[in-house]
Every structure is written in C-alpha cells, then in structure tokens.
Amino acid sequence: MSPRTRLSHALLAAFCLATGSARAVLADTVPAEPAAAAVAEAAFQAWLADFRREAAERGISQATLDATLTGLQPLARVLELDRRQPEFIDTFLDYLGKRVNDWRLNKGAEALAQQATLLAEVEARYGIPARYLAAFWGLETNYGSHMGDIPLVAALATLAYDARRPAFFRTQLFDALRILDRGEVAPADFAGSWAGAVGHMQFMPSTWLAYAVDGDGDGRIDLRNSLADALHSAANYLRRIGWRTDEEWGREVSLPAGFDPALAGLDRPRPVDDWARLGVRGADAAPLPDDARSAALLLPQGIGGPAFLAGPNFQVILRWNRSINYAIAVGHLADRLAGAPAIRTGGQADNRRLSREQVETLQGYLAALGYDPGTVDGLPGSRTRQAIRAYQKAAGLPADGHPSVSLLEHLREAVLRQEPTGDTRLAGEERPA
Question: Domain ends where: 349, 379, 399?
Fold first, then answer.
C-alpha cells in the first residue's frame, strides 16, 4: 500500500472514529494507529513540499504559498464525501421531482423578480435568457443559499494528493492558487464545495480563470460575494461554449405506439421535421412545428418514461455538467419559470429505484447470458447500456438500453431458464420462490 493510500485510509478511519460511524467507509480502510498516521502525515507533508516547489516554479508568489500552504492538513471529511456512493440510483422522474419542485419554483420566481434589473442587463449583454441563468443558479446553490463552506485550498490539496483523481485536482489546486495570487479574494473567504467548486454558480478554479468576469465593475472578481460577478460569469461561460441565442434547449414530446427506441440517443440527431414524419408530436399531442434544425431524442427513463427532443443548447448545458438528467432539469426548470406546465408524459414508467447492488446483479446476469456489461460495479455506464440494448433486441423487448427493476426481473428469469439447476444468486439477491 502506497503512503498516499495509507493517508487516505488513515484519514477516513479517523473520521469514522470521530463521528462514531459503525462501518468503514472503504472495505480496506486500515485502523488509524499512531505509527501509521505518522507515516501518512509525513508522506503528505513530503508531497506538499514538492507541490509547493512546483507552484513557486509556476510563478505563484511566496506570500500566497505561505498564506495557503503553511500548516495545511488534508480533510478527512472531503475524502469521505468523495468515496460516498448512493445506495440507490434515482429514476429520472425522482431526480426531476427533487430538483424541479414547488420550493425551487417559488424561490426562482422570487429571484427573477428581485434580480430583474441585473438579469436583464446580463441577458442583453450575453444573450442568455434570465430564466436559464435562474435555473442554473437554483440547481447549483438553491439561489445562493448553499454555496459550501469548506476551505477550498485544503479540499483541493486533499483530492490532489489522493490516489483516485490526483491529476485533475492538482491542476485545479494550481488554478486556485493563481486566483488567490491575484489578490481579488482573501484565502479566508475562499470556500466552497468539498470538490472545489466556488460561488453562486459553483465554478471550478479552471472555469473561473477561463471565463469569470468582473460583473459589478469594482475591479475584482468574486464569485461568492458578488452576485453580479457570478451571473455575468455564468452567462459569459455559456455564450463562449456555444449557446445559441435564438434557440431553446429542447422540448418534451410524445411518441407514437410501437416507436423504435433504438432511434433515441444523443449520438442520433436528425431534423425535427424527420421526427415529425416518424410520428413524434408535442407533449400535448399537437404536431411539431416545421423545423429543419437537428435534435436528438432522449428517453431518460426508457421507452415508458418521458421523451424529449434536445437541440444544440442542450449540448451546451452538458458542457456545464455531463449528466443528461441534470441538463434536462435545467431546461425544464427554465421552462417552468416561464410558465410552462409540468412533465405531461411518462407516468406509466417503471419508477422503482434500483439499488447499486441490484445493478451489479443486473450486470452479472448480462455477463452470464453472454453480453458484455463492462466492469460489474453497480454503475450503469455506456457499456452496460449497450449490453442491455443488445439483450433487449435478442429478447424481443423495446431496445431502449435502460436499466430498470422490470428488466432485472426479466434477466433473472432468462438466467434461470438457461441454467435451471444452477445457483444464479448474485450480489446478495434472494432466489425467487
């Protein structure tokens, strides 16, 4: 075990002991014995000294290094949060319901009214509609009420030293020091999320350096304490990564009976007119407007759930956060803030949540039947979805590639039929009676 891994384990074990946790955060976490902790601490300080030398070589001032790195200690809480994985995977409908709810709609309406002058100024300058900025703001920090209070340099140093994603967070730590070196933000005020995101719109340091602007004209950039800086910066970011001012993000649609879900996917766009010829209509069953622009069909909860046509601005939202569920939530929240109705289709979808253990079981069944789901890790990534789609086609099911409890049940029966005398229990699943 490397010194770096020992430190991670020692910190996590110490955190569990301090909080009275009855279980280890990682299966191979070692006890935080004094000798091991001392070795781990020495290893971290050696890494920090090396990082400090490189930061100085990159032009970070001695004053900034002294103010931020002297006496720096890694944060066990950050490692615990980085390792935490949800026990259950939310369905799209559950995910959306938690984020586009009455509270966020009411607060969003208040924010649009209270910040109307600022939002109008930002929209006029960058071309990003106010309702989209409010949607990002609401989803990122509940309109500024939850920006995080974890010391940013300590959080980034913890993750940069850790073994899981050191290269990414090392770069973010250098960028955070560059921001502080400008003198625009005091180290004591440089706080944010455990993963290093800052301010109303939760910019990572690299995004701050590349896209943040002085929105209030005071000669400095402060994304935490200046809402004008935060909103101007968000709009500047969206515009520079490709936002089209004359287009929306997309729209909810309804599908005809017998529609082939294999046509769906971000990598399968086609003109809206083509979707109309295939029988796709608006969510209210009205014909789609004549439109030669390209859009992709998305089925975030499979063929039985809601359906959406997503245009180029959807891809821009994905640049902000690579989650399809998140990007749809941004678009839908923006629509709702403009008076659009709630989701109208997909109520018949299987809305039972899958646990990570059940996803592991599903992946194991796919592998047992000769389909390659990739690593059996409880995470339904692209290879797992490809394997699901292949199985669905072979089984005569709608090939939407979507993992669900009903699919798990179908796979279990298929495995039992294939090996009626074998023990097909995987990942702790009970054999059905």
Answer: 349
Which helix (H) or strand (E) segment holds residue 161: the answer is: helix 152-161
pLDDT tens for the chain, 433 residues long, are 555 555 555 555 544 443 333 333 333 344 456 788 788 889 999 999 999 999 999 999 999 999 999 999 999 999 999 988 788 899 999 999 999 999 999 999 999 999 999 999 999 999 999 999 999 999 999 999 999 999 999 999 999 999 889 999 999 999 999 999 999 899 888 999 999 999 999 999 999 999 999 999 999 999 999 999 999 999 999 999 999 999 999 999 999 999 999 999 999 999 999 999 999 999 999 999 999 999 999 999 999 999 999 999 999 999 999 999 999 999 999 999 999 999 999 988 999 999 999 999 999 999 999 999 999 999 999 999 999 999 999 999 999 999 999 999 999 999 999 865 444 444 444 444 3
Residue 276: CB atoms within 10 A of its CB come to 17
* Statement to judge: residues 48 and 172 lie in one domain: yes
Contacts of 311 (CB under 8 A, 6+ apart): 244, 247, 248, 249, 250, 293, 294, 295
How far is Cα 55 from Cα 59, in angstroms, rounded to an integer? 7
Q: How many domains does the chain have?
A: 3
φ, ψ for residue 198, nearest 5 deg: -125, 140
DSSP conformation class of 214: -
- Taking CA atoms, 344 is separated from 132, 262, 280, in Å, by 21, 22, 15
Is there a single domain that holds both residue 396 and residue 300? no
Whether the model pTM is above 0.85: yes
Residue span of the structural domain in which 60 resides: 3-86+148-197
Report residue 99 as tokens. Answer: 């984020």
Handedness of CA 381, 385, 388, 394 (dihedral sign): negative
d(CA 410, CA 420): 15
Q: Could you give the count of Cα atoms lying within 13 Å of 41 in the half-sphere of its Cβ?
A: 11
Give CA angle at 312 (349, 112), nearest 5°. Answer: 80
Share in percent of the chain as helix, strand, coil (round to 5): 50, 5, 40
